[in-house]
Amino acid sequence: MKRILRALCPLLALLLLFGACSVLNKSLEPTTTTTTTITTTTEATTAANTQTETESAAQANGQTSSSAATTTTTTTAPQTAQTALSYDPEDDAAEDGATVAKRITTSGTHTISGAVNGQILVLAQNVTLVLDGAVITCNNGSAILGKDGDGDASLQSLTVELRGKNTINGAKHGIAGKDELIITGSGSADITSVKDGLHAGDSLTIKGGTLNITAGSDGAECGNSDEGIGEISLAGGVVNITAGGGAGATAASTGGKGIKSGKDINISGGKFNISSVDDCVHANGSISMSNGSFVLASADDAMHADSDLTVNGGSIDVTKSYEGLEGTNISIGGGTIKIISSDDGINAAGGTNGATGGGWFGIDIFSGGDSGITISGGEVILYTASDGVDSNGTLDISGGTVAIFIDTSVSRDGDATDTESGGTIQPALYGSTSLSSGTKLAVGNIWSVTLEANVTSFCLILPGVVNGQSYTITANGATWLTTTATTTIQGMMGGGNAGGMGGRGGRPMH
């Protein structure tokens, strides 16, 4: 037996040596890494959060890959509460303490579906966040918050693409982008927020999707007027906003504007229905509109620009306002505008005055310098309880259709056209006989309208009307009155001026 064992020992030694070499060779082979598509389902006691994103396992492990395979992995883990980084684009309260349900730290496209309890915190520089049937609720911060992990010096772009029906509830803002925020897609989002529905630091663009926003403060806000930043571009989509409780609410210290920009607003498309306690559309710079449609109701101004307000297309339907359109310089070259206001229909302020009173919100600040109103095209119909077209500078109406209807029974004065620095208008037809809402008014075959408010006086500036000629105006088909066209800018009540006693809130006449 011993002889047999002695004979086997060399053989066993050879086998052990061969095994050791095999293990060594394996350790020297190139590393193979796997690029993994991970679908993570995070379960909480009341909701499930499904998130899909593509990550590199090789990058996660700090390895290099010579070959790759794609696999799908599903993991289940309890939700972990984390603390959001400080976010302060407007020097307001930071969001320390917000519960973070998902951190996005890599640029690219990320999809959120299902129920999410907590904040989606975007720390990467360039992210497209696809919301596809997501229900996001953050009870102690903004529902979606963009904050570039590289710091304030690095521009962050956050695009939110809507697919299907989504719901977003934020204890601060609904969706907040550090710098650039873009809303697009073919889906919808119902957004409820304590503060702003949409909030962006430098620029906000709405290109698509359907947004139903109920905001305690502003529906959509961008920028900071003190720093001269904040560009808003409205190019598409359907947006319904109730801000600050809506047009029927009383004044609120938290604001309540529909769409607010720290600088300029450019409108080239989209459909907007806004009810707000403060201005529906407000720019601390200028507003330029070439297309799109607006239905606006406000306890203050429907559209306000501290600087220029230009309308060359689209439609604006103001169902309630203190003043309809207001800016330092107002230019209308096209589109259709209908305004119901309890003060001026269109008001150009500025000049040496520099400011006028506001509806619920007191003083409006303008850019200063010369002011004026220019109307060269489009159709403008105004129902006011004060001045129709009121310029604290010049007034020039060279084209288009302008119909001004005033109910002086509830007004302090009632000048259809009012200017402090002179101007020119096309031939106008003036009259001062009472008519009731619902009456069909016609000027021969030239023009007709069905009144949407009670009227005690009017001014009609219509294409085809010739200066010095008389025209018969009918009401519901019966002759109402005959009037002669004139190019005189006049106050129909004979006593309107730019310095009356002021109305609600002590607002001076202007």
Describe the structure.
It is a single chain. The protein has a domain at 34-80. Mean pLDDT is 77; it is low at 1-5, 11-94, 351-363 and 491-510. With 510 residues, the protein is mainly β. 6% of the residues lie in helices and 49% in strands. β42 (470-475) and β43 (478-484) form a beta hairpin. It is built from two helices and 43 strands. The radius of gyration is 32 Å and the shape is elongated. The termini are far apart. The longest helix has 27 residues, at 2-28. The strands form four sheets. It has a 24-stranded mixed beta sheet that branches.
List the helices and strands and how they pair.
Blueprint: H1 2-28, E1 35-43, E2 48-56, H2 57-61, E3 70-78, E4 100-104, E5 108-117, E6 119-122, E7 126-138, E8 144-146, E9 157-163, E10 165-170, E11 175-177, E12 180-185, E13 188-193, E14 198-200, E15 203-206, E16 210-215, E17 220-222, E18 231-243, E19 259-261, E20 264-276, E21 281-283, E22 287-289, E23 293-298, E24 301-305, E25 308-320, E26 323-327, E27 329-340, E28 346-348, E29 355-356, E30 364-365, E31 372-375, E32 379-384, E33 389-391, E34 394-397, E35 401-406, E36 417-419, E37 423-425, E38 428-431, E39 440-443, E40 447-450, E41 457-461, E42 470-475, E43 478-484
Parallel strand pairs: 1-3, 4-6, 5-7, 6-8, 7-9, 7-10, 8-11, 9-12, 10-13, 11-14, 12-15, 13-16, 14-17, 15-18, 16-18, 17-19, 18-20, 19-21, 20-22, 20-23, 21-24, 22-25, 23-25, 24-26, 25-27, 26-28, 27-31, 27-32, 28-33, 31-34, 32-35, 33-36, 34-37
Antiparallel strand pairs: 1-2, 2-5, 29-30, 35-41, 38-41, 39-40, 39-42, 42-43
